[in-house]
Amino acid sequence: MKAKYIAIIAALLIITAIIYKMFFGFAGMPSGMYGGNSGEAMPVSVVLVKKQQVNIIKEFSGRVEAYEKADIRPKVSGEITQILFKEGDHVKKDQPLFVIDTRPYQAALNSAYANSAAASSTLENARKEFNRAAELIKVQAISRKEFDEKSSMLKIAENNHKVAQAAITINRLNVEYANVKAPISGKIGRAEILKGNLVDPSAGQVMTTIVNDDKFYVDFEIDEQAYVNFTSNPANEDVSKIPVKILLAGQSDAKVEGVISSFDNQINPNSGTIRVRAVIENKNKKIISGLFAKVQIGNAVAEEKLVISDTYIMTDQDKRFVYVVGADNKVEYRTVTLGEKVNGSRIVLEGLKEGEMIVSKALQKVRPSVPVKPIISEDQQTQ
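Below the sequence we write its predicted C-alpha cells.
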C-alpha cells in the first residue's frame, strides 16, 4: 500500500516538473534552446516604432437643440377662421398659417382711410387760410390776433393729419397681423388652437411652433483640462474648423459630422466644466430637437505622435511596459508612459523612440537580457 502512495507522489512530481518547464523553463535554458536547435537565438516577431498622424478624439454627452425656432403667438385678438397648414409640413418664411377674423380690423382700416381724407382736406383749407392771412398781415389788413388764429388752425390741422396717418398704419398692421405668417422656414408642429377658437395676445397663447430643420445645435459640456488642451493648440485658433462627430441615441457607427460653433465665456466653478455648442447639418431630415447625443471632438489638424498597438503593451503591477529588442538583439524590459487611446492603439509619451523594435507576438515567452532573432512583421500594426 505504501509503495502505491509513493508511485502516485512521484507521478505528480513529474507532471509538476513538466508544467513548470513549459511555462518557466526558458529563462534557465541555454540561449540556443529558444530556436529549437543548440546555438540558435529564438526568432521573435517585432515591429518598428513609428510616428503617425493622429487626431486625439474625446467623447462627451450632449443634447440636440433647435438652431432656429419660432413660437407662433397672436398679435391681435379674434376668432380663428382658417388654418392653412398640416402638422409636419415644411413651410417657407412668410407663408400664411392662420387667419384671424379680419372684418373688424378691415373696417377700422377703412375708417382710418376716411378720417385721413377728411384730415387732408382740412389741412389743405388751413394752409390756404394761413397763406391768405400772411399776405394781409403785410399790408395790415388784418389784426395780429387774426393772423395768430390762422397760424394756430394750421398747426392743429397738421397734427390731426399726422394722427390720421398713424391710424392708417396701426390698422393696416392689425389687418396684416390677422393673417398670421411664418417668421422662419422650417418644419411646423401641430395647431395648438383650432379653428373657431378665440385668441388674445395678452393670454400668451402659442398657436404652433416652427423649427428650422436644415441644421441643429448640439450643446454639451467639457472638462476644464479638455478645454485648455483644445484652445492651447494653435491649430484650433479658429474654433469653426474643429471637427465633431455626433452619435445619436441608439446609433453605434452612423456619425453625423459638424463643427464647433462656440465655447462659453466662463467655467462653471461648481462642475469644473464649460459649455460648448456644435452645429450639424440635418441632411436626411431625421434629426429633431431634444435628442440625446454622444459628441466626439478632435483637433482641427492631426499631429505626429508615437503610436503602438495595445496588444504590444504588458502590465507589471502599476507599470506599463514593452519588450524592446536592442542593437545587440537582446530583449530589454522598458517601462512606457502612455497617452490617449487612438483606434485601439495608444500614444506613447515617454519610454520609446522612433525606429526602435518592440516584440509584437509571443510576449509571454521572452525574458529580459535573452538574445533573440528579430523578424519584422509583414503586416506591421503600429496604430
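The mean pLDDT is 85.
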